[in-house]
Each structure stands twice: as C-alpha cells, then as structure tokens.
Amino acid sequence: MVTPSNLLDSRGPDHRPSVVIVGGGFAGLNAAKALAHLPVEVTVVDRRNHYTFQPLLYQVALAVLSPADIAQPIRTILRRQTNTQVLMDEVVAIDAGARQVSLGSGARLPFDYLVLATGATHSYFGHEDWAPFAPGLKSIEDAIEIRRRVLLAFELAERQMQERGWHPPLNFVVIGGGPTGVELAGAISDITKLYMRHDFRHIDPTTAKVSLLDAGPRILAAYPPDLSAKAEAQLKDLGVEVHTGTHVTGLGPGWVEAGGQRIDAAVTLWAAGVQASPLGKMTGAPVDKRGCVLVDDRLNPPGMPEIFVLGDLAHFEQDGHQVPGVAQPAMQMGDHVGRMIAADLKGKTRPAFCYFDKGDMATIGRMAAVAKVEWPFKAHMSGFPAWITWITVHIFFLIGFRNRLSVFAAWIWTYFTFTRGARLITGDQNLPGWKDQLAAGPANEAAAKAAEVK
Q1: Angle at 52 between CA 49 and CA 55, to 5 degrees
Q2: For the residues of 171-209, what is the DSSP string, one character each?
Q3: What pLDDT sits at residue 6?
Q4: CATH number of 4-47+89-122+274-345
Q5: 41 catalytically annotated
Q6: CATH 3.50.50.60 segments of the chain
Q7: pLDDT, tens only, 229-288
Q8: φ and ψ at 315, to 5 degrees?
Q9: Which DSSP string do the residues of 136-150 spell out, in sequence order?
Q10: What CATH class has 128-272+425-450?
Q11: Catalytic-labelled residue, pool 141, 183, 241, 306
Q12: What phi, psi does 51 have (nearest 5°)?
C-alpha cells in the first residue's frame, strides 16, 4: 500500500521530488508559492499563459476594466522561484499507477506528487445547445464575448432607430441568482442608467430592461436570508426585475422561456450552474454529481496520497457541509499542500486541512453590495459600507502593484466621471436573435413607444 511515508523511498535519498501542478488559478498558484523554498522540482501546467483574478471578471465583461487589469502571465508571477517551471499545455490523461500525466503536445510528465486545481466550467444541466445563446463567465474570453454582446445591443439599436425609427426592446436577461448573476445584473443596470445615458443620439439607454431569473426561493442562496433580502432590495432600487422560483425551460436566439412565459432578450447571460473540470474523472477517483472529486482532510482522493485535489475540483466537507468553490478555500488549500509536502519530506505526519471562513461578499452596483464578515469580527453589512469593504478586499488580493494601481485608478475615474474606459467591441456584429426580431417588426405599440427618440 502506498502511504505518505513511503511515497519517495524508491527514488533514493538524493532525489528531489517532482511536483506537477495542473491549473494556474487561485489554488494552483498558491500551491506553487508554498513550495518555493522546499527541495522539490515544481512544474505548473496550464492551457493558458495567464492567471486571472476571477472575482473581477464581470467588470471586464461590463467594460469597467480591461483584461490586463485582472490578468498576469503565470511566468511573471513565478519568475523568482528557481525550483519552478511553467508549461503552456493541457493535460489529456492521468496514469495514477505509473505516476505520470500526458499532455496535449504528446509529452509525458512523471510526478511524485500531482496537484489538480483546474476549477470548474459552466453547467447547462444537460442543455448544452443553450450555450451559444447564453454565454457564461469563467474566463477572459467569456468576459470579452459578454462585453461584445452587451455593447453591441446598444449599437445595433442606435443604428436601427436611425434607419427605421424603431428598434427591438433592449431586454437583458441574466439566468442564475448567485454572486456572478447578481453582479452581472447590477452592472448592466449601472451601464444603462448611469454610464451610457448621454452617449447616444437616437435611443435612450435608460429604457433598457434588466431581468434576473433564479429557480430557487431567493437569490444568493448561500448567504444568510437577511443579506439575500437586502441584495434583492438593492437590485430593485437599481431597476433590476428579480424573479425567484422561476425555472428556465427553453432558450434560443433572442428569447428565454421561463415560468410559463416567453421573454424576448437582446442579450441572455448564464450564471446558473457550474460543473467540475473533466480532469477529476481521469484519476479514477469517486466524484459527486457535479464531477468534483471526493477528498479527505488531507485533500487526497481515497487511496491516492500522492494526488491532491484543490479548489472547485474538490468535494471537501467540513462540519457536515461542503466547503464552497470560491477563492478563499482554494487559496487556503493551495497553501496547505505546501505544508503537507513539507511534512512528508521531514518524515512527519501530514496536518489535516481546516477551512478558515473569513466571510463572503458580493457587489451589486455602484455603492451597493452585501457582505458577511467572519473575521476579524462578525458582521452582516449592506449598501455603501459593504461596497467599500468589497473594494478594499479585492484590491488587496490582486497580484502585482501595477494591477492594484490600475484597477484602483479605473474605479476612481469611473466613480467620479461616470464614464467607462474599456467599452470596446471586438469580433463580428452578429447578435443571436436580433435579425429575427427585426424581421418581426415592432411587436406592438408599447414596444415602439419604448424605443422612441429621446
């Protein structure tokens, strides 16, 4: 039986253990940094060359920040770690018995320890055909596509209004009432009500309608009920229509079916569910219904002490509840891997992982947010105090002084000037369903009136 104490015995006393880390996100990078001063050889593998600060992806999607503000090359972050190399490649197979991973390039990497931290992707609950019509938000590419669609809707409406005197209603539908959905809905409302109201000559952006749909009884279901209620109230103050207990049953180009009704949508965004990276199943370890690998308090799948699974890819339970797949647990798991490998090298018992919950927060819009603080004090906050707390925390956790400075400067500029500097449309001018709505003509007199010249 393979145990932590004999993992390295067969390689000899002078062997420097090889640690392969798959994924350059919160968990993977923190694991790499935790190994910086240990006598090991670290290889970080990621199919992208950059780390992305995912909590601010929605601000790239809604034109507050540029991609470079929240992303940085993995090589740059780890360049001072002499025991670490970075490979831009993709793992396509894992042979746990032979202790090696196969890469898309055809290469094979042997390992003494394997750290899997590839996170999660969108889940459409078996309706993968919905994906082209309702993009999710997990990467820089997703954010740029969402930005393209949201901004393009206004540009097409302006052109249509000038040419024909009417345009299809500017309805934006966000599906999913978790933190990402709430942040997207609030940010779209901010754009329409505050930041673009004086930029067009033929349309009135403030007439745009933003709807947030969630199948559950309340938004932000993982938060305490009082914060969920305050978040919903703040969204409504921003003009967002919140529909809870509303199941989406159909979705296509320019429309959403939910709650027995068909909703026209210039842009539909998906924030309703996630599923784990398929890499977890390659280990042969048991997984839950979302594909997350079941791990013990050493973050190992059963019988695999040489493999650690972290972040969104891990199903780890503490006090009878699954630890959430958010940034803080991922970072703490990455740090803990360093401590466990250090214990192995010293011949000591690995310490058990224990998640220290510092709280959760979600921003809703300009000067609007909710926060559940667990450390250094306990508090439930909403509105402006929560918003300031959110800004402070996110500035602190950004990697690199330049990123912190540029993000802070962008926020200050946006706050005082009511302008956003990253409103760039890239790619084609195709918006799913727009041409169908044009062919149908004005739906009724009310729709035409809503699109009248300012």
Answers
A1: 170
A2: EEEEE--SHHHHHHHHHHHHIIIIISTTS-SS--GGG-E
A3: 54
A4: 3.50.50.60
A5: no
A6: 4-47+89-122+274-345, 128-272+425-450
A7: 999 999 999 999 999 999 999 999 999 999 899 999 999 999 998 899 999 999 999 999
A8: -105, 95
A9: --SSHHHHHHHHHHH
A10: alpha beta
A11: 183
A12: -90, 140
